[in-house]
Amino acid sequence: MTGDDGAGLVVCAALRLEARAVRRGLARAPAVVVGYRARHAARLPDRTGVAVAVVGFGGALDGRLSPGTVVVADEIRGGGKPVPCPGARPLAADLAGGGLRVHVGPLVTADRVVRERERHVWAADGACAVDMESARVAAALPDGTPVAALRVIVDGPHHPLLRPGTVTRGLAAWRVLARTGPALERWAAGLA
C-alpha cells in the first residue's frame, strides 16, 4: 500500500464502529477491521514500508486517566517481548495540539476484559491502559514495521465497563477517536 495509492499507513481497529470513527479523519490511509482480539490480523498488509496504527477504545489501568483521554503507547506489552512504538511522543503532542487530553505510556494487551485485581497488577508494573488487540497485531507484522497504538479510554478503575454510563462514555470516546486520523497520518509521514 505504499506505491500506487500513496498511503504509507494502515489503520486497524477491532470493531467496525471504531474503524468508522477513525475513517472520518483519514485523508488517504485505509482503516481495516481486524476483529475482536485481532482474529482477522491476516487482513493487514504483509509488505515493508507501511506503518500500522492500532486504534480504538481501551480501559485505563491508571486511576488518573479519565474517560475520553487518548492513550498513546510508547510500548506494547502482552504475550512476548515488549514492542516499542516509535514516535509516540510526537504523535501525542500532535493530538494534544488538536485539543485532546493525551497520555503516553505502556499499553497491555489482555485475553479478556480485565477486572480490578489485574488492573492493579499491571498498573503497578507501569502500564497505563489495556486493550485486546495491539500486541496481537504487532506480532502479525513483518519485522521492522513501525507501529503505533492509540486507545481512547472508556472504562477504568473509577468507571467500570459493565455499569450504567458506559454507553455515554462510549459515544464520547467515539467522537474523540474520530478526531485522531489527521495526527496518525502525520505520524506515518514523519517516519519516512
Structure description:
This protein has 192 residues and is an alpha/beta fold. Helix content is 30%, strand content 25%. It has helices at 16-23, 88-97, 116-124, 134-140, 166-177, 181-191; strands at 9-13, 31-33, 51-60, 70-77, 83-84, 102-109, 129-131, 147-155. It is globular. Mean pLDDT is 85; it is low at 1-6.
Q: Please report which band the strand proportion falls in: under 5%, 5-15%, 15-25%, 25-35%, 35-45% or over 45%.
A: 25-35%
Helical residue percent band: 25-40%
Can you tell me the overall shape? globular
Amino-to-carboxy terminus distance: 14 Å
Instruction: Give the ordered list of helices and strands.
Output: EHEEEEHEHEHEHH
User: Unreliable stretches, pLDDT < 50, 5 or more residues?
Assistant: 1-6
**What is the strand tally?**
8
Give me the number of helical elements: 6
Helix-strand category: alpha/beta
Oligomer: single chain
Topology:
Blueprint (H helix, E strand, L loop, with lengths): L8 E5 L2 H8 L7 E3 L17 E10 L9 E8 L5 E2 L3 H10 L4 E8 L6 H9 L4 E3 L2 H7 L6 E9 L10 H12 L3 H11 L1
Parallel strand pairs: 1-2, 1-3, 3-8, 4-6, 6-7
Antiparallel strand pairs: 3-7, 4-5, 4-8
Brief summary of the model shown:
Helices cover 30% and strands 25% of the residues. It contains 6 helices and 8 strands, in the order βαββββαβαβαβαα.
